[in-house]
Amino acid sequence: MRFQRNNRWEEPEINLIPMIDVLLVIIIFLMLTTTYSKYAGLEIDLPMADATQSTGQPNEIDVAVTAAGQILVNKVPLAAGDSQAIAVALQQAAAGREKPVIVINADAKATHQRVVDVMQAAQSAGYPHISFATQSAE
After folding, report:
1. Can you tell me the mean pLDDT for 47-56?
2. pLDDT tens for residues 77-86?
3. C-alpha 51 chain-centroid distance
4. Residues 117 and 82: beta-carbon distance below 8 Å
5. How far apart are CA 35 and CA 20, in angstroms?
6. How far apart are CA 72 and CA 81, in angstroms?
7. How far is C-alpha 81 from the geometric centre of its chain's CA atoms?
8. Strand, coil or helix: what is 61?
9. 73 membership: H or E segment, kind and range
10. Strands 60-65, 101-106: parallel, antiparallel or unpaired by DSSP?
11. pTM attached to this predicted model
12. Phi-psi region of 99 (alpha: psi -120 to 50; beta: other; left: phi over 0)
């Protein structure tokens, strides 16, 4: 006894077009709702370079960064160049001064990392006022 009549076996079919449409909608949704990370920027007030030379204030601490990467605080070279040693040297140079301004004299060929190390050391030592020295074009 056979109860089934004319049943043909059909191959299952996978239709990819609706799946592609759904994935495309998901990608567009993710692109529109994604917030991109913002890099922490350094707010720096660069001094204007003009021909007149300003007199140094007694509340300034001069930090020089040479092309070789050596750091000098008030013309005294540092033995170690890590941020902690720079911060200690800045605190010693600023002893007795109220809110000193850190003036960074960086060589044009000095690496950015050394200048950023000085800036981080000044921030960790509690000196937020940083300025950069420039020379006139003449």
Report:
1. 55
2. 888 778 889 9
3. 31
4. yes
5. 25
6. 10
7. 19
8. strand
9. strand 71-73
10. parallel
11. 0.57
12. left
Integer Cα distance of 29 and 120 in angstroms: 39
Residue type, 112: H
In DSSP terms, which residues pair with 62 in a beta bridge? 103
> What backbone phi and psi angles, to 5 degrees, belong to 103?
-105, 115
The structure tokens 């350094």 sit at: 42
* Phi, psi dihedral angles at 9 (to 5 degrees): -85, 120
List the beta bridge partners of residue 64: 72, 105
Closest CA to 87 of 61, 112, 56, 110: 61
Measured distance CA(30)–CA(10) in Å, rounded? 38
Both tokens of residue 122? Answer: 């000044």
In this structure, which amino acid lies at residue 125? A
Q: 38 is written with which tokens?
A: 């913002």
